[in-house]
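seq as requested:
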Amino acid sequence: MKKHVYVMVVAIVCLILVGCGKKSTEYGLDPKNPITLQVLTYYNGAPQIALNELVTEFNNTVGAEKGIFVEAATSGGLNELTEALNKEAAKTKEEMALPDIFCCYGDVGYDLKKLGALADLSPYVTDEELAEYVPAYIEEGRLGTEDGFYVFPTAKSTEIMSLNKTDWDKFAEATGASLESLLTWEGLTETAEAYYEWSGGRAFFGRDAVSNYMLVGLHQLGADAVSVVGDKAVVNIDEAAMKRLWDNYYIPYISGYFSSVGRFRSDDMKTGTILALVGSSSGSAYLPSKVTVGDAEPYPIEVINLPVPNFSGENPMVIQQGAGMAVADSTETKEYAATIFLKWLTDEENNCKFAVASSYMPVKTEAVTAEKIETAAKANDMEWNEVIKSSMNVFMNDYSTYELFWVRPFDGASGYRSILENKMVNQSTQDRQKVVDLMSAGKDLQTAVAEINTEENFKNWCRELKEELEKACE
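struct tokens:
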């Protein structure tokens, strides 16, 4: 009898321990008492629709099973979301009112992490699970820590070059220009000058996000304007490297070989202002299929996508971009629930569906194939035209053959990108107008450019850039 009682006691204790173990691994989640998670993104249009559909599917399946209900909303745009997050980052942690999950870039995430406002997701994700993702995406999400994990990769993009091949073919046939010349910045600059002369003074190229040109170019040349020591930034302006960037953006811009008129360079391609552009791979769905020059009748064009040029003689490199999702510091239950949703969202099938809708790329290594993305497009009856397809093919080539670059977080990183962008863009724009004014006064292009593009002008620009960066990094 005593033996039977002993066995029963042991069995009961084991059941209790198993129950406790199960409870601890679920961090208090209870299907009978579901918790609600607010997700805030900057998505619009097709990406937001796709996310809403996935959220509904999650709520009806895994969410219902585990006791998690997700509600998704959009801020209206990236600028609005960044502004809202920066506003919260200016408060004390006790005053903050962050969403449970939100789209987040590394610089803003870094600032929030320092305030203790972000959840470290590493306790809720195993090493085996992390190994399924592209390593560079996980490293970026660590925000400079060795083993913390703060920004979950959900969708990524890079940059591509897009070309109006219809009008390029006319130029190439007349001049012998080759697409191979567009593989380097130096070759692009020479080609843009040749097109300007052949076309009677029309610009050839423009780019979105000039900051990416600066950031990647300087890193490629081994001359980052800011190096990070611990959490601090040290400013170093290498004039030789800066001169190569200057020669291949500023000079062709003030000469009229490059241009930027509309909000995006795809707008400029649509009006025939330029033939080629560099922009986000996620923007391929917005590339024009027709060109309308002035009041003339629109005509159809073929657009092809090419890799972003690199500096001659340097290892190929391209920007890694696309916001991940961060989780606000909260209870273990909410943090764990948020991680469950993010794992589900980045599951191969779900992530490919979202990637196709948004023209972004999935984040797991095994999912980055044309076959899997095209399968997702067909299965969900989504648009999969040749322009989008070629954009993703260029991305996958970059992914396998280029070094992916992103800015490591540091104090002042949020201002670093905008300073680089504004200094190059503003100087180029104002000096282009000076050249135009000189030409209107009767001077030829070469003379006008030579008067503006002086050594003193360049050195003053470098000095001002250094001063602004040092102030931002104080």
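The longest helix spans residues 413-440.
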